[in-house]
């Protein structure tokens, strides 16, 4: 038992000094002078708003992507003690003393710094030499655009970090599976692949492209495993399930967890609530929740309600009426019914209240016990203030002549009888006996006489003219024209009416609701709604001074001015290393041409390189060329404002390809010692030029030192670059 104590316990640690040195230099390059400039830099004005909302626990929706990246930026603010009090309204605005600039920029800078050792390890795992791996890491280290993007409160460096981490994790997993199936390290790298992919998607949806690439590569590798007769059916099934768990199920679970944390932290009402449904708004503290908390759940005959249109775009609006009537004749000469106007009004107002009436009685109060309204029931909707009935008939609507006019009926004692019966249809019902519920039920009103559906059509055209106070048009739309969300309504505010007399009822309608039942959405219901809003909500794209096309990126015909000092002329630009960008494009072209040449020759049974070198070449292309393609080509299909920084993930993969092509050329195309020596000298000269260009553009990468007008003009290597020259 004590024999083991006779010898000392020895722990052997292998330290890759290349990796340590690259990590340290990467940290220095990204963290040096991180608080400079102490002013809002370009898109910090955009992301900073969300950080402030996180600090104040106020709900928001960002249509640019999921919340994980914003949470990481907010974590930096939390670690620095940021209270969220800063007005993010202008690029170049000086930060107040309560803003922890260094802390807010820390996580993007760390992510950018760690991309340097990740690049080194990826090439090592691809079975290339340490010299090639070192070259890839140094190219990432000296790439000016990656430095600039990682030194501010922006998301691209975090996205690239998780993309590279996912690629590295999968390569380590793949290399391990040759020797040790289902070992601890095998599971670790496989699971980390899935988690890193989920994090990449959680930062920006661009990460989805790399995730799909890795899933495709994993599928190809598993397809090859199926052909291995040494593996039993049980073993293959275990491999399949392990990959399904790690690369599909766990990433989905991690992605959901981002939204769970997001919705848990942001529980307060804010300026973005209005695009969400009434049920979602009511689940937040403050705002609509203060109004709707404790309302009756079931709508009954005699209920007083406001009806909000579910579509909510471009603005939310409520069914509304007022004493004014439609003009006898419109400007185009068409006539109207001259009945009381019904509109959709984008503000809360006492004229938004309606009473649900049973057509069989004259009672406008809720009975005891209440009689709930169910799917399929026939109701009349009485305008609370004017007591006129919601009506539609075969008269053309003012702005939509192919649809029916909707009005509140006035009896002019002419041959135009009231047509005010509506059938309640609950769109999201679970059964045909469902009760109409406050906030939760989405309903449409089908006119009994004409089968027209009550619809807010003003979302699709101009507002009503001055006679309609520029409010949105409401029409009766034939069911034959198809279903649309603008036909769906939900009860937002609700009370049980108690006053039969009109004067008392008007007082009741002006008073706030105070009832007994609260409603909460499940997490999955809130997630589904928020995810749908993120995917479908699009801000109006406008041309930006620094926007560009995807074709401009390859040759870097564009730049972005991130910051300009108001007096000294010091400035920061998103500009890449010209030599690196040109070399990356050439490397991709050389790889493509060589691959086609090899394929044609192999088809003729001519093998120019050994089989193991060919497999290495193909695997490297699958990662690097594939990574470039999936992160670049989709932008040609996107209808959005594009900027140069969108190219950085694709560029990163292209940079990794440069040393791969160089090593391949040196090993297989330089046959003689003289050629190898000349090639090595050219590579050294080329790399020296990369470093010189990096140093030349460092002043506009870091923002210091400030340059003279002449020096700034000298940096304008392309006429399309917008280098800012201040007038003397």
Automatic annotation (TrEMBL):
Keywords: Endoplasmic reticulum, Glycosyltransferase, Membrane, Repeat, Transferase, Transmembrane, Transmembrane helix. It comes from the Eukaryota. It catalyses: a di-trans,poly-cis-dolichyl beta-D-mannosyl phosphate + L-threonyl-[protein] = 3-O-(alpha-D-mannosyl)-L-threonyl-[protein] + a di-trans,poly-cis-dolichyl phosphate + H(+); a di-trans,poly-cis-dolichyl beta-D-mannosyl phosphate + L-seryl-[protein] = 3-O-(alpha-D-mannosyl)-L-seryl-[protein] + a di-trans,poly-cis-dolichyl phosphate + H(+). It is a multi-pass membrane protein. GO terms for cellular component: endoplasmic reticulum membrane. Its main location: endoplasmic reticulum. The chain crosses the membrane at residues 15-33, 67-88, 100-120, 154-174, 186-203, 208-226, 246-267, 578-600, 616-637, 644-662, 674-693. Residues 296-359, 370-427 form the MIR domain. Its EC number is 2.4.1.109. Pathway: Protein modification; protein glycosylation. GO terms for molecular function: dolichyl-phosphate-mannose-protein mannosyltransferase activity. The keyword Transport does not apply. It holds the Pfam family MIR. It is found in: Endoplasmic reticulum membrane. It is an enzyme of class 2 (transferase). The keyword Lyase does not apply. Belongs to the glycosyltransferase 39 family. This is Protein O-mannosyl-transferase 1. The gene is Pomt1.
